[in-house]
Amino acid sequence: xxxxxxxxxxxxxxxxxxxxxxxxxxxxxxxxxxxxxxxxxxxxxxxxxxxxxxxxxxxxxxxxxxxxxxxxxxxxxxxxxxxxxxxxxxxxxxxxxxxxxxxxxxxxxxxxxxxxxxxxxxxxxxxxxxxxxxxxxxxxxxxxxxxxxxxxxxxxxxxxxxxxxxxxxxxxxxxxxxxxxxxxxxxxxxxxxxxxxxxxxxxxxxxxxxxxxxxxxxxxxxxxxxxxxxxxxxxxxxxxxxxxxxxxxxxxxxxxxxxxxxxxxxxxxxxxxxxxxxxxxxxxxxxxxxxxxxxxxxxxxxxxxxxxxxxxxxxxxxxxxxxxxxxxxxxxxxxxxxxxxxxxxxxxxxxxxxxxxxxxxxxxxxxxxxxxxxxxxxxxxxxxxxx
Length: 387
Fold this sequence. Notes:
This protein is 82% helix and 0% strand. By secondary structure, the protein is mainly alpha-helical. α12 runs antiparallel to α15 (359-373). It is globular, with a radius of gyration of 19 Å.
């Protein structure tokens, strides 16, 4: 593995560990401060809507001003987030600022990093494995810290990991050639706007359209895993550590399966595999809503993780194969923005349903919705003659 690829992989892995350590417990933290279901939905929504807005411009700016500059900016943003989380203990509205900063930092991890790893021609399955490893280790670590000490040590742990992530970002910055060119604010804003137009044009390509659409569905499940699911598990009596174990089970199987996904990346039926992943995810969430048994929930989380694990390297591969190198950043941003839009819409919608009815009903409705939304691409493939 080249040194640049190693640094990028470590950066992505630590960033994923930091986010996954904190994300499942932000709804519980907001609930402890007295917020209702709708308000908690807005807190989680802030994290995702920032990504909806920024992911396409981030992809374009990565191509324009240099991946290293964007990665460094994302690392700084993530470093600032725990400071605002801690400050929200004294002034609660600052939690929205913290969520926005974390969303900016994570957007870089999900847009610029995968785009750059394909430019390095690095091992995609190993890169996604280490990202998944971060997602696997984070939830139980965060849950145990919360059970033992509360949220404050968890925020300090996020600060420490963010500093580590920044170190790797600085090392990357020094090893990647900085692109020369105009970087005035007016030029950057114009480039960002044009990138939105370029992204919409890419939706005319069947592969990009379906990859973005399935990302919308799959990220909806990510949003549920960071909002509705932790609240539901807490309601039926699970500790933060058990919530972390269940989350880690999902992330763990998704991590392991990526090590065996290399053969699927050369398959001619990658889009069909994506749709299958979405259906499997929807059925898993639906069945979880009917269960209070930890063993059954862990098994269903394993199936959920299987769908998520296969989805990620395959969708990265589809985007890479369907784009030229100079437009890949925009395409990755489009996929990410559509995914974050699914998370944002899903969070607001299903948290509102939970507020009107119950967490269990809302979780069941979300599973059914993902199943139904997975059906239209099947007809798209049939109409195009693909089997």
